[in-house]
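Changelog excerpt

This revision adds worked examples to the README so contributors can see how folded entries look when concatenated. The first example is reproduced verbatim below.
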Amino acid sequence: MVRKKTMWLKNSSGKQDAMLTFATISFAIVSLNILLSSIQELGLPSGASISFQILDTGTMTAYLAATFGAYVSRKWTDKKYVQSSDESSTEEEVGA
């Protein structure tokens, strides 16, 4: 069995980041929905038509808030733990 490596966007630290990928995808989906809803209806050569409606603003807000909130809170938590480990290593160096 061959396991395929998942492709995630890389964050500012150069590490693959699933939450950044989900936040970017959610932003793209909401932006695409807003753009397509401005077209409203697209007629096809066969005579059929495709209509687009904008999502409910509450749904879009919840979708974006959940993904961006998770990304920001994870990034803040990572930064907090990196800072605390840096401070403890500095205290050990001073005490030595």
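The second example, added in the same revision:
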Amino acid sequence: MTFEIKIKAGFFKTQNYYLTVEAGQIILTPREDSENRRLVIEDHNLKSVSIISRNTYSGELEITTHSNTYIGSINLQTGMEEITKKLAQEFGGKFILQCGNV
């Protein structure tokens, strides 16, 4: 399952990525910039993946590994339910969902 997200790449810069959730993996693939490489985060390297949902179609995303933290935003026209369900299914206790205004 693939979703479009934006990952912070600097203080005022974000980059567009595809986030794919597969069996025990999160794959981040750049949508535009070919200089950036695809990043594959395996379950054993993942500390946590969190979504702070503001409403039914947008939220903040944080992926924390043992060596890095990736922060971004999600804006899904189809709603947050699909991505939260898939992340919870694949990563269980490593997935955190916080709902409400932040």
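Reviewer comment on example two: The two ends are 27 Å apart (CA to CA). The chain has a mean pLDDT of 88.
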